[in-house]
Amino acid sequence: MLEVTGLRVAYGGIQAVRSITFHVNEGEMVALIGANGAGKTSTLKAIARVLDAAGGDVHFCGEKITRIAPHAPIRKGIALVPEGRGVFPRLTVAENLAMGAFVRDDKAAIAEDFEMVYGHFPRLRERADQLGGTLSGGEQQMLAIGRALMSRPRLLLLDEPSMGLAPIMVQKIFEVVRAVAASGMTVLLIEQNAKLALETSQRGYVMESGEITLNGDAKDLLNDPKVRAAYLGE
Fold first, then answer.
1. How many Å apart are CA 145 and CA 154, to the nearest integer?
2. Residue 165's pLDDT band (boundaries 50, 70, 90)?
3. Is 21 exposed, middle or buried (0-12, 13-18, 19+ CB in 10 A)?
4. pLDDT score, position 192
């Protein structure tokens, strides 16, 4: 479904992503792990067209999307849940969710998807009329994921969904991530908690200093001595 070939991302003269190549198959959940500054977020932003690629290509469902208009990926079925959540603080929870469906006009199905999101995150139903900016960090992460799901994406890009959250909230968020993946949605997950990411995913890539240095089945990476030493504290 997603083919990234020789992707480069630069900030001025600084190469954040150095000619990386990887793929994500349809219906698969893939983790991209690495330390801060490894280039993970820049990679996701380039795929979602939040950033311009300095080189290389991104293909989605056989179509080259490397330099399409920044608003186009969502219409093609790519939804990004950004690092930091990015909720609209002065819109209500319900309005934030409705913004996720702005590319759709199937009102009955949109109503069904509101119920789907509220089913995953009952707390959002309780706070439907509350402003997004007044929610806790965990509730905002729920809202950011719910908003992305409202677009009915074919590919869900998750950038650090556990960042800054209490363990019980992380558990809830990843229960929903697993359920979404189990429903057949394709997921590319960036996560600093390497153990959690690899336990949740089928395959993984390890990124260091803008380059992919390891890849394989998630279980194999969990047992890889280099991964265990660098990311699992062993």
1. 14
2. very high
3. middle
4. 83
Does residue 153 sit within a domain? yes
What CATH number is associated with residue 183?
A: 3.40.50.300
Into how many domains does the chain fold? 1
Kindly state whether residue 212 falls inside one of the protein's structural domains. yes
21 in a structural domain: no
Confidence (pTM): 0.94
Beta bridge partners of 134: none
Cβ neighbours around 225 below 10 Å, total? 8
Burial of 124 (0-12, 13-18, 19+ CB in 10 A): buried
Q: Is residue 19 part of a domain?
A: no
Please state at what angle helix 167-182 crosses helix 107-120, rounded to 10 degrees.
140
